[in-house]
Design goal:
The protein has 303 residues and is an alpha+beta fold. 35% of the residues lie in helices and 21% in strands. The chain is built from eight helices and 13 strands. Strand 5 and strand 6 form a beta hairpin. The protein is elongated. It starts with a strand and ends in a 21-residue tail after the last helix.
């Protein structure tokens, strides 16, 4: 009861899976990714053991096709399984059991494969591959574009509930704040792909590096605008730079702080936060910002 997209980046080291379903917490069981090794999705009547066993097979150097064969050949419930595997090289491989229900199958691209069952129509999976291959940005961005295209083409015929995005790059992730790994899940929501897109945007901000060349000096009109937004969040005491640093630390964005200047991405996040606060305040909700917090600078705890 799921549709998924498994993909490999052009570097041959970055792999990812995006998945969505009218089922609770689809990301808890469907996706498996290993940087430099490969990725897979196991769904329909999901066999969660396929994840570890499949990656072990790929690490041993087996092809995607051989990995699929090994996983399904001894499984008595294989008619109810669906599986997609992508290795570091070669074409993707899939399995769709005969009991996976109507409108189930796969669509294969050069570096990606879409699989689904209980789909709204035959156009869902080709739309995912086409959108992925046409999209720009990071592998995570492209996977999300494919997932969105699948939903627009009908997606899961029962509706929507959860979605997930898992990407691993390079030789693996050593730090929490790293662009080399995306691991985002929406377990139960009326608009899971919208929430997933929002979370991915926040992830990109969280792992970004400051852009000193594009930053604006924290003076004049920029300082006044920053001050206005900080005051909207209840941060009214102390120099603007200190209040900005305190807000950035609380939002886990201290890595974007610059001396005497404001990074454009940090400025946009502050404006977005203040705008959301104003909307909430006008609707009668409690302010999210903390009033009169002292200015402080905090080391990046995520490193």
């Amino acid at each position: 009861m799921t549709y998924s997209l498994v993909a490999r980046d052009a570097d041959g080291q970055t792999f990812g899976v995006a998945t969505a379903s009218k089922y609770l917490a689809v990301g808890a069981s469907v996706t498996a990714v290993a940087a430099g090794v490969g990725a897979l999705a196991t769904q329909a009547s999901t066999n969660v053991s396929f994840r570890e066993r499949g990656l072990r097979s790929l690490r041993a150097g087996l092809t995607a096709g051989r990995t699929v064969d090994l996983l399904v050949e001894g499984d008595p419930d294989r008619p109810r399984r669906q599986l997609a595997v992508l290795a570091a090289t070669g074409r993707p491989a899939t399995w769709t059991g005969s009991a996976c229900g109507p409108v189930a199958g796969e669509a294969v691209g050069d570096d990606c494969v879409a699989v689904g069952n209980l789909l709204a129509g035959d156009g869902v999976l080709p739309a995912m591959v086409e959108a992925f291959e046409a999209a720009g940005g990071t592998l995570a961005d492209r996977l999300l574009a494919g997932l969105v295209a699948g939903e627009r083409a009908g997606g899961d015929r029962r509706g929507r509930q959860s979605a997930a995005l898992l990407v691993a790059a390079g030789q693996g992730t050593l730090h929490l704040r790293s662009a080399d790994r995306v691991d985002l899940r929406v377990d139960d929501h009326h608009d899971p792909l919208g929430e997933l897109a929002r979370a991915l945007r926040k992830h990109h901000v969280l792992v970004a590096e400051p852009d000193a060349a594009g930053a604006a000096p924290l003076t004049g009109a920029t300082a006044r605008a920053v001050d206005t937004d900080l005051r909207a969040l209840g941060r009214t005491v102390g120099p603007v730079a200190d209040r900005l640093a305190a807000w950035a630390a609380d939002e886990n964005l201290e890595h974007l702080l610059l001396d005497g200047a404001v990074d454009a991405l940090l400025r946009a996040e502050l404006a977005r936060d203040a705008g959301a606060h104003r909307i909430g305040a006008s609707a009668g909700r409690s302010p999210r910002g903390r009033a009169n917090l002292p200015g402080r600078r905090v080391q990046d705890r995520a490193r």
